[in-house]
Amino acid sequence: GAGVSQTPSNKVTEKGKYVELRCDPISGHTALYWYRQSLGQGPEFLIYFQGTGAADDSGLPNDRFFAVRPEGSVSTLKIQRTERGDSAVYLCASREIPTGGGSEAFFGQGTRLTVV
Amino acid sequence: GNSVTQMEGPVTLSEEAFLTINCTYTATGYPSLFWYVQYPGEGLQLLLKATKADDKGSNKGFEATYRKETTSFHLEKGSVQVSDSAVYFCALSDQGSQGNLIFGKGTKLSVKP
Description:
The complex is a heterodimer of chains A (116) and B (113). With 116 residues, chain A is mostly beta strands. Helix content of chain A is 0%, strand content 47%. In chain A, the strands form two sheets. In chain A, strands 2, 4, 5, 6, 9, 10 and 11 form a seven-stranded mixed β-sheet that branches. Chain A has a four-stranded antiparallel β-sheet with strand order 1-3-8-7, with no helix packed on it. With 113 residues, chain B is mainly beta. In chain B, a hairpin with a 5-residue loop joins strand 5 and strand 6. The chains are: A mainly beta (116), B mainly beta (113).
């Protein structure tokens, strides 16, 4: 597609349930990032993939959060035993060049997760 | 660790007013600096960037200059329009990293006709 696509755009789930959030990056982009944006805050880094491997997962808040990118394209962020504090907008971004700070990252519109 | 501090909003201006949104950073080494914009109902978009000291990024009438001596990257526009109403985020990327972005909290700008 033309841009980064995230599905669903909105997700409401009950506390304790499991959720999966999907990201389709721009074709050919080897670097993929997940961020979380809480209300009134800037996006916070969660995890970075270079190809199929998670090169840096230091931003994942705890072991309830996990992400995969099995074929080096689509990525899924998985949250187990959701808590109300997980409510946020989850953003995905992709970049053509995996390293170096100066190239542009393209963001999806995000998935708004609400845990009730 | 690396961090970005930007001016808190919201900021409300009349059309054609001058805009400044302050941004300062803390980083080791020589980060790249960015301004991203989020229009209502849309995703984050890169507005402009600068990759080394004294570089000036510019786009759509917005400008920001990478000032290493003051560790700042303030966003300016000489004459804002209603269509500039959005949330603006300052961000940095450490040159030694995988390109992870560190964002400020964002500044909401509302421009009234």
